[in-house]
Amino acid sequence: AKQWQGVIREYADHLDVTESTPIITLGEGGTPLIPAPALSRRTGADVWVKYEGINPTGSFKDRGMTMAVSKAVEHGAKVVVCASTGNTSASAAAYATHAGISSAVLVPEGKIAMGKLSQAIAHGANLLQIEGNFDDCLAIARELADNYPVHLVNSVNNDRIEGQKTAPFEIIDVLGDAPDFHFIPVGNAGNYTAYTRGYREYAAAGHATKMPRMFGFQAAGAAPIVRGEVVTAPETIASAIRIGNPASWGHALEARDETNGYFGMIEDAKILEAQRVLSSEVGIFVEPASAISVAGLLERSDAGQIPAGAKIVLTVTGHGLKDPQWALKGADGEDLAPTVVRADTGEVAAALGIT
Ligand code: F0G
Questions:
Q1: Which of 38, 160, 189, 293 could form a disulfide with 246 if both were Cys (CB 3.0 to 4.6 A apart)?
Q2: How close is the Cα of 19 to the center of ligand 1, in Å?
C-alpha cells in the first residue's frame, strides 16, 4: 500500500510550493475522521471527530510546521524561532531538527504541559522559560525575528495557516462535502482562520457545495474574542489556549462573519467534563484545550442551537498524552489512582468484581 506523503505532497496543487521547495515532512496529516455515536445520541446531530492528536508530534501544529519550516529552509533560514504554549514548540523543534537547522523556543515559565516540554527538549530546541505569559513570549519572538537572523514560525507566519488549511480538505475528501457546523478550539485563532480558508478554497475548487458555520471556543478565563477586550492575565487549566491577545483576532472576526459563525466560552470544569465524555464514551483521549470543541457542542446543543441531523465536525487539536494529569481526577476532584492488590488471582478477581 502507498504511504501517506504528508500534507505538502498530498495537496501540492493548493499550496505555494515549487520544484525548488525542499519538502520537510514527518508524514503529518491524513488524520482519522471518526464518527462519534455517543455525541450524536447526546445531541441528535451527526457528529464526527477530526483527531489531530494523530500527527507526528501529537498536535495539528505539524500541518503548519511542515510548510513553515520547508519555506524557511527554501529562504535559507538556519534558525527558526517561536513562542509557544507547548505544542508549537514541540512541532517546531521536531521539524527544525529533521531539516538540520536549529530552533529557539520561548515558553511561559511553569505554564506548559510536561509532555510538550519534554518533546521540545528531546528534539533539541534551544528552549527558554520566560517570566511572563504567552502573549509576552510572542511579542519577544516577533521582535527577535524583526531584528535578528531568525525565522518566525508562529501562526502570524502565513505559511503556517497555509499548511493548516489542509485539514478541511481531508474532511471534505472523506464526507464528500463540507459539514453544516465545524467546532474548534481558539487560542491565537490561527487554526480557526486556517480552517475557514481551507473550506473556502476547497469549495471554490469544486470539492464542496458550501462552507460550514465556524464555531470557535475559548476558555472562560482566557476569552478575549468573546469578551471583546484583551485579557491581561489569562487563566485556564487548558494551558494550550491560555492566551489573552490572539494574533489572528481580526482574521477570526472576519471568518466568523463570513460563515455566520460564533465564538463562545467555556468554564474549566465543563472542559474537563467534556474531556471525560470523549475519553470514556467515544474512546478518544485529548488534552483539555482540545476537549473545548466537545464542551462547545454540548453547550450549544443544550442552548437549542443544533438542528436535528446536522452534520458536525469537531476538531480535537492535541493528544491526551501530552498533558495526562487531568485524567487522574474525577468530576469532583477525587483521586482516580488505581487500587493496589496482592499478586493473587482470587483477590484480583474480587477486586475487579468478577464472580
Ligand atoms: N489546541 C491546542 C492543543 C493548541 O496547542 C492550540 C494552540 C490551540 C488549540 C489553539 O490554536 O492558537 O491557532 O487558535 N497552541 C499554540 C502553541 C498557541 O503554542 O502551541 P490557535
A1: 189
A2: 31
